[in-house]
Queue: 4 jobs
Job 1
Amino acid sequence: MSKKLLLTLFLGITLYSLPALSQSPVNVVRVKYDGGGDWYGNRTTFVNIFEFMRSNTNVVTAEREITLSISDKDFFRYPIAYIAGHGNVKFSDTEVSRLRQYLTSGGFLWADDDYGMDIHFRREMKKVFPEGEWVELPFSHPIYHINDNFPNGLPKVHKHDGGPPRGLALFHEGRMVVFYSFNTDISDGCEDMNVHETSPEVHRSALKMGTNILLWALLH
C-alpha cells in the first residue's frame, strides 16, 4: 500500500473521529492583527492550497480561509490559524492570553514571514510563550514528508536575505504549537503564478509544502 493511500485512510479515520472537523470542510483562520503590518496579503494563497488539497488528497476543504482577530468569539472554532505579513505585528494583552489558550488547548499556528515580519512576530510570540525557544526542525521531521517529500526541508521561493529557508517551531509540553516558515515565503509561492511571476515548478513545490503543513497540523 502506498504512503499516500495510507495517509488518505489515516486522514479519513482521524477526521471522522473528530466532530469539529467531520461536520464541515477543513478551514484555516487568518489572523487579523494590529501594528500596521499587512495581515491581508497573499489573497489567493489558500484558494490555491485548498484546491490543491481537494485534488490531491481526500480532505474536504473550504473554498478559502476565514479572517478573524484573535479576540473574536469564533476564533477557537478553527484548529489551524495562519499569520503572515511584511511589517509590524502587535497583539493586545487579551490577544496574548487568548492565543496562548488557543495553542495550549490543541490549536496550531502557521506563521509565514513575507519578509519584514520576523523581528515583530518573534517579539509578540515571546509574550505568548515567554518560556519558549524557537527550535529549527531537522529535515527528517515528518512535516517535510507527510504527503510530499522535501528531503532538504522548506523549498526556497524568494531570495530575501539569501541563505537557506528555515523551518522553526515552538513546542509546548512536547507538541509543536507553532510552525514558522522563515526566509522563503511559501505564501507567495502558493499565490496565482502571475502575482509574483512564479515559475510552475516553484508554485507546485509551495503548494505541496503548504499541504504538508496543513495535513501535519490536522493530525497533531
Job 2
Amino acid sequence: MKLLLDTHIWLWSLQDSRRLGKRVQHELHNSENELWLSPISTWEALTLHAKGRIRLHGDLANWVVDSTAPFREAPLTHEIALAARELRLQQQDPADRFLAATAKVLDLTLVTADLRLLGLGEVATLANR
C-alpha cells in the first residue's frame, strides 16, 4: 500500500505512538508499504509549533530533516492545487484540502483520524483504528 500520513498521524508516530490504532501501527511498520509525507504536513507542524499548540524539540531545520527522512516526499503540483479546490469538502482547511487532493491525484491512501476526511468517496482512506 502507498500511505500518505495526515499531519496528526505523522506527529503521533513521532511523539506519542500510543495514539495510533493497532491497524495503523501495523501498516506503518509493514516494510511492503510505501510511506509518503506532504510538505504541507511539515508546514502545518511548523505553524502549530509557532502558535505554541505543539512543541518541536531542538533546531527546527534538523527536526525537519530527521522527522521527514523515513518518508517519500509527495510533490505539491498544479494538478494537486486544482484538485484541492475541486474536492467536495465542507471544510475550508487548506492543509486538509491539499492532503486529500495529494492522495487523490497520486493514488495514495490517506491515513487519518479526521472524520471529515474519512469516507469522502473521492479519496482512499485508512482510519486510525
Job 3
Amino acid sequence: MAQGQYYVPHTAKWPIVGSIGLFIMMLGAASWLNGAAFGPWLTLAGSVIVLVMIFGWFADVIRESQQGLYNQAVDISFRQGMIWFIFSEVMFFAAFFGALFYARVLSVPWVGGEGTGAMTNELLYPQFDATWPTAGPANLGGGFETIPAFGLPLLNTLILLTSGLTITLAHWALKKAQRGALIGWMIATVVLGIVFLYLQATEYVHAYQDLGLTLGSGIYGSTFFMLTGFHGLHVTLGTIMLIVITLRCMAGHFSKKQHFGWEAVAWYWHFVDVVWLGLFVFVYVL
C-alpha cells in the first residue's frame, strides 16, 4: 500500500452485531431493574454478543495491522479516535463529579436552610443537620459509617500510582526493543490492576456488611458507589486490555517504531490513574 494511500477496510459485520448486542443488553438491564424474570438472561445474552463483537472486531484489526495494511495516515486516525474516546470518558466522569459537587456544596446546604432554602428547611426538614456525609433529610437506607481514606483507599492509590510507573517502564523497554523487560513490566502492571480490583471488592463487601453503607444510603451512598463503581468498571476493562496487549507482546506483535495499539492502552490506563486520584481526594479525603 502506498504511503499516502488510506486503507479502506472491507465491509464489516461487527458494527451491526455490536449495536444489536448493546440494545439487547440495555433492554435486559432495564427489565431486570423493573423486576422482569427474563431481565438477567436478556442482559447476559446481550453481554455475550457484545463480547463476541469485541473479540471479533479487534482480531480483524490486529490481523490487518500485522499484515502491514496500515500506514501513517491510519495511525494518525487511530490516535485521533483514542483522544476523542478518552475525552468522552473525561466528560462521563465530569458529570458524576459534578453531581457530587452539586449535592455536597449546593443542594445539602440549601435543604439545611442556607440561602434561599430557609423556608424549605423550616416547613419540611426542620430537624435536618446539613453535614456531609449524609443520607439526606429522609435518612434513606438508615445510618451508615464511611470508609477511612487512609486505609484500603490509600493502599489502592499507591497500587495504581505504582502501576503507572510499571507501564511507563514497559513503554521504555518497548522503545528500546527489550522484549524481556517489556513483558516483565507488563505482567507487573496486570498484577497490580488485579490486586486493585480485589481490594476494591473487599472494600465493598466491608461497606455493605459492616458499615451499613450501600447504594441506597441516600445521596452519599449513591454518589460514592456511582463514582467508585464506574471507576472500578474502567479498571476492569483496562486490566483486560493490559492482559491482551501483554499476550501480544509475548507474540512479538509490537516494534519500537510501530506500537500504537500498545500506546492506546497505556493512555487509557494513565487516564484511569488520574481519575482515581480525583476520587481519592474528593470522595474519601475531603
Job 4
Amino acid sequence: MSEIKVWKYGDDINTDMLFPGKYTYTCSTAEEIKPHLLEDLDPEFAKNVKPGDVIFAGKNFGCGSSREQPALGLRAVGIQAVIAKSFARIFYRAAINQGLLLIECPEAVDAYHEGDSVDLNLEKGEIIISGEKYTFPTLPKEILAIRDAGGLLEYTKKKLAQR
C-alpha cells in the first residue's frame, strides 16, 4: 500500500461534469479528452491530477449520457479507482470497457475528510483512511485483467491471440 491523493466530490456527478458534452464530437482520443476532464466542476483537476490518484464521490456517480469519454479520460490520466457510494449503471459499464476501476464503499466515502491519509489495497479489498480500515468485496480477477490490459478491447485482443 502507498499513500495516494484523493479528489472528493458529491452526489450526482454526471458525465457532463466529468467531460463537457460540448466536446463530444471534437475530442475522441485520450490526449484530446484529458485537458477537459472536470473543467466545469473542478478546473484544477486536469492540471494537477497524477497517476495513482483516486476519486471519492457520493451517490450516482457517472449519471447522464452514455458517452465513453469520461471513463476513457479518467483512465488515461491514471486514476487508480473511483470510490463512491453508488454508480450509475451506464457509467459502470463504460468504466469496465475502459479498464477504470470502480469501488462501491459508502462508509469510506463518509469517513474521508480532506487531508486524511488514504491507502488502497485492491488485493485485500481494503481502504485505509488515517488508520481506519474499510472493506469492500475484492474485485473479480477478470475486472483486474481488463484494467491491466488497458481496457476491454485490448483484453479481448490478447485473449484471442492466445487461442
